Amino acid sequence: MDLSYLSSNASVMAKYRDLKQPDDKVQCMYVWIDGSGENMRAKTRTLNFVPKSVEELPIWDFDGSSTGQSEGSNADVYLKPVAIYKDPFRGANNKLILCETISYDKKPNFANKRASCAEVMKKVADSQPWFGIEQEYSLLSGKNGINKHPLGWPENGFLAPQGPYYCGVGAHRAFGRDVVEAHYRACMYAGIPISGENAEVMPSQWEFQVGPSEGINAGDDVWMARFILERVAEDFGIAVTFDPKLISGDWNGAGAHTNFSTKAMRGPGGIKHIEEAIEHLRVNHTAHISNYDPKGGADNVRRLTGRHETGSYDQFSAGVANRGASVRIPRRVFDQGFGYLEDRRPASNCDPYVVTEYLVRSSILKEKL
Ligand code: ADP
Ligand code: MN
Ligand code: MN
Ligand code: MN
Ligand code: MN
Q1: With contact defined as beta carbons under 8 Å apart, do 152 and 175 qualify?
Q2: Which ligand 1 atom minimizes the distance to the CA of 257?
Q3: Which residues have C-beta under 5 Å from ligand 4, the single-atom ion?
Q4: Average pLDDT, 10 consecutive residues per value, the chain (369 residues)
Q5: What pLDDT does 6 receive?
Q6: What is the pLDDT of residue 13?
Q7: Where do the H-state alpha helices sit in the chain?
Q8: Nearest 10 degrees: Cα torsion 208, 213, 219, 220
Q9: ipTM above 0.90, yes or no
Q10: Residue 148 CA to ligand 1 centre (angstroms)
């Protein structure tokens, strides 16, 4: 389908983007997670001041019946600002405002997984939990993304088997690098602690890493990094998918490996605390799997097959340098005797608020989940 008539025109746009914005007018794009628990929405309002903290920002609302978050007869859902980022798209003093959603009864909307995560993070603040999340995703050709066709794949048939694509270079191995580069810089500009990127095992699949971020910031930073990715790709006429198993068969799925540590794990003798945490994760394996994708574990059944560098969804395993396990202790960490563990189970479309909350409830609060 030719969608070129929908294209934006960069040179025409530049004329408007270069118009001087009044100093006392700030565009604030409020961003939130919709009823799917995966997709994000955004809308903008003008403020007459440059916001420095979320407390200064007005609570807003939106039509929740159009986002799967409420009934039409009682449609309004509140947007409560929780984090401010610089806006890499509009530049200047403009902001991206990450929000949590609050229902008419002033309770967190069902799609708001942040509220309970924030409570748990407050409880364990003394342990200083850090999270480094490796966000994998795939690029789709065609801005409608309708046919779920990976960017750069032939219209019919398949590419040469996976092998040369991971961290690959060359036009026949790396598809969509401009999106990756633009996203990296846009995240840095926004104030997200993006720590790296790489091309993944399946061609047109990529990864970026966020963190380590402490406590609730981990979820905030990953969600905003996802929003920026979709928005950057939109500029290129490319769609992003976080489907954890886009192509069945001999192609790697996509995850959101979550690297996790506490103050004790990062200190001398920390390996003992890492091994202890792993035993708590083992006991709660089933509860973690049910909460590591937005479909109660069903998405991860497709991905965690025990093949393609995954552990099996129905069996917990752990090991040093083992990329076929549920949880891996990086070799470097084992050698030095302290550091962090890697939970390899979260799916690429997981809610990082849920994943970080469950890690903390299992391993720090030692809850039986
Ligand atoms: P992999 O070898 O699994 O591909 P990556 O290099 O992609 O690992 O990601 C490692 C992640 O671990 C990074 O996001 C990094 O910020 C994070 N990380 C490093 N040290 C810690 C730590 N002490 N606690 C939590 N996360 C950490
Ligand atoms: Mn309206
Ligand atoms: Mn990685
Ligand atoms: Mn990876
Ligand atoms: Mn990893």
Answers
A1: yes
A2: 3
A3: 207
A4: 59 90 97 97 98 98 95 90 98 97 96 98 98 97 73 84 96 96 98 98 97 98 98 93 94 97 97 98 98 97 90 95 95 98 98 98 97
A5: 57
A6: 87
A7: 10-17, 114-123, 177-190, 217-235, 263-266, 270-283, 285-291, 298-303, 331-336, 352-363
A8: -90
A9: yes
A10: 30
Nearest Cα residue to atom 14 of ligand 1: 132
Measured CA to CA, the distance from residue 37 to residue 78 in angstroms comes to 16
Top mutation candidate among 135, 200, 205, 209 for ligand 1, by most atoms within 8 Å of CB: 209
Q: Alpha carbon of 44 to those of 24, 64, 79, 171, 229: distances in Å?
A: 16, 16, 12, 38, 18
HSE at residue 71, side-chain half, CA atoms within 13 A, is 3
Residue 227 in contact with residue 96, Cβ under 8 Å?
Answer: yes
Give the separation between CA 96 and CA 27, rounded to whole angstroms: 9
Q: Provide the pLDDT for residue 42.
A: 98
DSSP H or E run through 30: strand 26-33
**Residue 58 · residue 26 · CB < 8 Å:** no
Which residue has the CA at smallest separation from atom 11 of ligand 1? 132
Phi, psi torsion values for 85, nearest 5 degrees: -125, 150
